[in-house]
Design brief:
The complex is a heterodimer of chains A (about 325) and B (about 290). Chain A is built from 14 helices and two strands. Chain A has helices at about 5-20, 25-50, 60-75, 80-100, 105-125, 130, 160-180, 185-195, 195-200, 205-230, 240-255, 260-280, 285-300, 310-320; strands at about 145-150, 155. Chain B has one domain (about 1-275): ABC transporter involved in vitamin B12 uptake, BtuC (Orthogonal Bundle). Chain B is built from eleven helices and two strands, in the order ααααββααααααα. In chain B, helix 1 packs across helix 6 (about 160-170) and helix 1 packs antiparallel against helix 10 (about 235-255). The chains are: A mainly alpha (about 325), B mainly alpha (about 290).
Chain lengths: ~325, ~290
């Protein structure tokens, strides 16, 4: 059960999120939709990093979801909400297959192996024009169907409406991710990360749990992909390339991965900097440079991410304010 | 038959510059334990040294290539000082920092030279025939330079005190430090050589590939495949894997197409990893 303070904080947060799109311009609303989708992407990535493995194929998993969902609607006429779910399942299935070779490796080998696996998938999209559309990808993907309540018709071409749709899907997904982390399974992920030999010696099947984390993370990445594909209306292999993966990595690293709000903080802060400051100043060309510099500086000087700033500040204030003894553990 | 032999000659050329890149990457990993994701961009930087000095400022080609080696080597020293030394105990952070550095290098080159292909006129148009296969002098130069540089590196590693120190650090950094070998000094040497080799590979191949600021991407993918197949940390493995990969890739490209060749290359790497998770020549445990 959540404490009252946490519930209150969530309530305020959701109230703010509900008001937010009405304060934004049309193009900012579109960015807000993508931001919400990216929150799911980076949070699902974090679930995998709980086991201590860093993949470079996560964005490709998002692409698998997007491609699968788009093809199901285009070719088979599956309704969009069902196809999105199927996209997530497709990503999970691909992850389950890939985990057989990939989880024979650890650390660097896994990192590079996942990179290679992702590149293979991307090259398949590029090479096989039927059904994947080749380098140009898939276009004119069906949009999310309008909902007609009789008195109220919701048109999901409107960014505001899609924003709320994405917000609901992503919030529900984050809740599930949160529950998984707090469950026995999630605790086992942590155990595998910090003490894999010890975990194994008490009967934990590391391979199976790593696979499970990879499959769950990919499922939610696939859902994010479906949300993305049916919103933008087009997908192509370049969209799910290494550059995009680098951004996910940057969000996770800059935000920190110890808590669920760490990566969210990372993606929100960097997107705001990116869209409002850099684009506003017309610095599009130097954007990668600034991202690179932020990445290096945060690895060097803020190794635990933005999420560590709050507790650190609080601890310092407390020490200065009253007695030096109070710097205890804090439930996230 | 002619096509087969011609393809083999082409593969030899590919193998030679790929070995230079992969060996540099392996050296950096061996001594510092960091996978340098920006290695492809070091190659790109070497190519742009030639674009600038040779194609734009008309210096002699070989001088421009040598400048590429030195300049990129110095960039390597900077990376060591600014990122890899402070992050020595944390290989994952080192890798992530190198991704950041990659973005910076790319952007700087875009700002300096634009996004489009840099055109480098070949220094010679001459070619010779080797048993019916055509080999341009430029490609021959790359092959000869690669063999000479790798031989020099081998002599350096096996015959000089610096080379011994370097190999000692790669085997066991702590034990090497206890023998009075300076970790920092060794890391500097490894970084200079590793980066310099990538730089000269880029410089020598610049007239053959028409460099863009984003050329590093395909280079690093290839280099990863090679060092994984060869076993991360094994210099001999890197060279052998480079030859193996170059032959497979060139033949599949010739008889099918480039994208299929890339897929086959990546699948080859995954297959090696499944059978031998530490590569063909890798040590038993290093992850």
């Amino acid at each position: 059960m959540w404490r009252i303070a946490t519930r209150l904080r969530l309530l305020i947060l959701f109230a703010a999120l509900a008001v937010l799109p009405y304060l934004l311009s049309y193009s900012q609303q579109e960015i807000a939709v993508l931001l919400v989708i990216n929150v799911l992407l980076v949070c699902s990535y974090r679930l995998l990093t709980l086991t201590g493995e860093w993949s470079l194929g996560h964005v490709v998993m998002m692409g698998v979801g997007a491609y699968a969902s788009a093809l199901l609607t285009k070719r088979l006429g599956v309704p969009v909400p069902v196809s999105m779910l199927a996209g997530g399942l497709a990503a999970a299935a691909v992850a389950a297959i890939l985990s057989v070779p990939l989880f024979r490796m650890k650390g660097f080998y896994f990192l590079i192996g996942s990179f290679a696996a992702g590149e293979i998938i991307r090259l398949i999209w590029k090479r096989f024009t039927d059904p994947f559309g080749g380098p140009k990808g898939l276009k004119r993907i069906d949009a999310f169907p309008n909902i007609d309540f009789g008195f109220l018709e919701i048109d999901f071409y409107e960014p505001v409406n899609y924003y709320f749709l994405a917000l609901i899907v992503v919030s529900a997904s984050l809740y599930v991710l949160h529950r998984i982390e707090r469950s026995r399974i999630g605790l086992t992920f942590h155990a595998i990360h910090w003490q894999d030999r010890l975990a194994e010696s008490v009967g934990v099947d590391n391979f199976r749990y790593r696979t499970l984390a990879f499959v769950i993370a990919s499922f939610f990445a696939g859902i994010a992909g479906g949300l993305y594909g049916h919103y933008v209306g087009a997908v192509n292999p370049t969209r799910f390339g290494v550059d995009q993966m680098v951004y996910v990595l940057v969000w996770a690293i800059v935000g920190g991965t110890a808590t669920l709000h760490g990566p969210i903080l990372g993606v929100v802060v960097l997107t705001v900097i990116n869209e409002i400051v850099l684009r506003g100043l017309g610095l599009d060309t130097v954007r990668p440079l600034i991202y690179g510099a932020i990445l290096i500086l945060s690895v060097l000087y803020l190794p635990d991410g933005l999420e560590s700033l709050g507790p650190r500040l609080r601890a310092r204030l407390r020490r200065r304010g009253r007695d030096p003894a109070a710097a205890g553990g804090r439930a996230a | 038959m002619d096509l087969l032999w011609q393809t083999a000659v082409n593969a030899m050329y590919a193998a030679s510059y790929m070995s230079l890149i992969a060996v540099g990457l392996v050296m950096i990993f061996g001594v510092m334990g960091v996978i340098n994701f920006a290695h492809g961009e070091l190659y790109m930087l070497g190519a742009y040294c030639v674009v600038f000095l040779y194609a734009q400022e008309n210096f002699p080609f070989l001088l421009a290539a040598a400048a590429g080696l030195v300049f990129v080597g110095l960039v390597g020293l900077f990376m060591e000082r600014a990122m890899f030394r402070p992050l020595r105990d944390n290989p994952l952070s080192g890798l992530i920092a190198s991704i950041g550095f990659l973005l910076i290098l790319q952007t700087l080159v875009v700002l300096g030279f634009g996004r489009r292909m840099g055109h480098v006129p070949p220094p010679t148009q001459e070619k010779l025939e080797v048993f019916g296969a055509v080999l341009t002098h430029q490609r021959l130069l790359v092959i000869v330079a690669a063999i000479l540089l790798l031989a020099a590196l081998w002599a350096f590693l096996k015959r000089t005190r610096f080379g011994w120190a370097l190999r000692a650090c790669a085997q066991d950094a702590e034990a090497a430090a206890l023998q009075g070998i300076s970790m920092t000094q060794t890391a500097r040497i490894a970084m200079f050589i590793g980066a310099g080799l990538a730089g000269i590979a880029g410089a020598l191949t610049a007239p053959l590939v028409s460099p863009t600021p984003y050329i590093g991407h395909s280079v690093i993918v290839t280099a990863f495949i090679i060092i994984i197949v060869g076993g991360i940390g094994s210099l001999e493995g890197a060279v052998i894997a480079a030859v193996l990969y170059a032959f497979v890739h060139t033949f599949v490209t010739t008889f099918f197409d480039g994208v299929i060749a890339n897929i086959v290359g990546l699948a080859l790497m995954l297959a090696v990893l499944v059978v031998r998770p530490t590569g063909l020549f890798g040590a038993k445990e290093r992850a």
